[in-house]
Amino acid sequence: MNITADLGLRYLRGDHVFAQLIRFALVGGASNITYLVLFLILNSAGPLIANIAGSILSTVIANELHRHLTFRAAGRVTWFTAQWEGGGLAVIGLLISTAALAALDSYAPGLSPLARAAAVIALTAGIGALRFLALRGFVFGSPSTGSPTELEAHSTESEDALRYSRPGGDMRPAFPIGPIMA
Q1: What is the end-to-end Cα distance of the chain in Å, rounded?
Q2: What is the 3-state composition of the chain as percent helix, strand, coil, each rounded to the nearest 5?
Q3: Distance of alpha carbon 29 from alpha carbon 25, whole angstroms
């Protein structure tokens, strides 16, 4: 692997906001694909059952991936807590998006399909951003005690040689690629 790719991977494996946001988006994409596959497989049982089963199963999988990969919180947050709080956030997002779409139908009934699709995409992106912030800050947030993160506990000597430690367990790369967001 070349040095640029290696540095990029190291950066994306970090615990800064931008790296977590990229992993969050990748997990979200994988979750949507999982939902689609489950919906297609279960559609013969009826679209409502396929939708509910696909939504629940893809949300459970996404919450677990966020716990392990996106926020590296498996050592701090239990499976049940991740499902209960992450699932609760998903339900809140669903309620907000449903209410917003109903309001859109009431206040702008003549919207073209393209404008409606743009509104749905914007709404989904906004709710996704709020979900990311809530998961990062409240569900999977690292403790404020400054104790080592899972990333620090599993780092190798070669990784440690490329990093510097700061108070509070900050382990950002010594030579960052792109903006540092804490």
Answers
A1: 28
A2: 70, 0, 25
A3: 6
